[in-house]
Design brief:
It is a single chain. The chain has 245 residues and is mostly helical. Among the domains are: 3-110, Orthogonal Bundle (Arc Repressor Mutant, subunit A); 177-239, no CATH class. The protein is built from 10 helices and 8 strands. The protein has helices spanning 25-32, 36-50, 66-74, 78-90, 104-107, 115-127, 144-169, 177-187, 193-202, 215-224; strands spanning 3-6, 9-15, 56-57, 95-97, 100-102, 110-114, 206-207, 210-211. Strands 1-2-6 form a 3-stranded antiparallel beta sheet. It has a 3-stranded antiparallel beta sheet with strand order 3-5-4. Strand 4 and strand 5 form a beta hairpin. Helix 1 (25-32) crosses helix 2 and helix 8 (177-187) packs across helix 9. It is rod-shaped and about 95 Å long.
Length: 245
């Protein structure tokens, strides 16, 4: 993106290329020449070079000729630039103006916007049209540092939201009989799913005095401890321990 100067800030420029650009007969003819794709790229680079000056290619006299200077600025082979410029002149795509060059297609396809407007649009997209207190007054143009700070604040909000969602996702949910049975089958153990459910249901799904965090860890504990729940009247203390970490 090319840049121009503006009082109190920057202005951003862009080239709006017509979607039928390559279907244009003059461009098709240019591409069919030997080396035509290279000439087409040179034309596109000339368009980009001119957008800061509303389609004008400024000849500063750095080189002996206009063509040679354009080759220098574009970092392209001089001979290829000469061929391209001659073709553009013949097709009316480049005009001579007091030693400079003018590209009519560029002049009608240039867009520009102040840095302040670019910033406001980015902020609007970022916060979803919700007004915030950190938006600068309309008569101020934010500095690069202010923009970075505001974006960092938005990132912090997003991170907090992500962490909150992750915390909610980890909240314990008591399993169904089918889930316990499936896990026991996967583990190929002797734990009775129904007894497991009944045991912890009677305890409010707590391990000792601590709310259960991972029922699968409790299943694995049952495998280690007799591979079955306590019988009626027997001590259940060994099942009232915390889950495996």
């Amino acid at each position: 993106m090319a840049h121009g100067n503006e009082i109190n800030g920057k202005r951003y420029f862009w080239l709006k290329l017509n979607r039928h650009f390559f279907n244009n007969a003059r461009i098709k003819k240019l591409r069919r020449l030997a080396g035509g794709d290279t000439y087409t790229i040179i034309y596109l680079k000339l368009l980009l070079l001119s957008i800061e000056f509303n389609g004008l290619l400024i000849y500063e006299g750095i080189e002996e000729t206009f063509e040679k200077e354009m080759a220098l600025k574009l970092e392209e082979d001089e001979e290829n630039v000469v061929v391209t410029i001659n073709y553009l002149k013949i097709q009316g795509l480049l005009e001579e103006r007091d030693g400079d060059g003018f590209l009519p297609e560029a002049a009608s396809s240039i867009g520009s916007e102040t840095k302040s407007n670019v910033y406001k649009k980015a902020r609007k997209a970022l916060v979803g049209n919700i007004p915030t207190q950190i938006q600068p007054p309309s008569n101020q143009i934010p500095t690069d540092i202010e923009i970075e700070e505001d974006i960092d604040k938005e990132k912090e909000i997003e991170v907090c939201a992500d962490e909150s969602a992750a915390h909610t996702a980890k909240r314990f949910r008591k399993p169904t009989l089918e889930e316990v049975a499936a896990y026991c089958k996967e583990r190929n153990n002797n734990v009775d799913p129904q007894r497991f459910i009944d045991f912890y249901e009677s305890k409010g799904w707590k391990v000792g005095k601590t709310p259960m965090k991972d029922w699968k860890a409790c299943i694995r504990t049952w495998e280690k401890d007799d591979k079955s729940p306590p019988k009626k009247g027997a001590s259940a203390s060994k099942y009232d321990r915390r889950e495996d970490d």
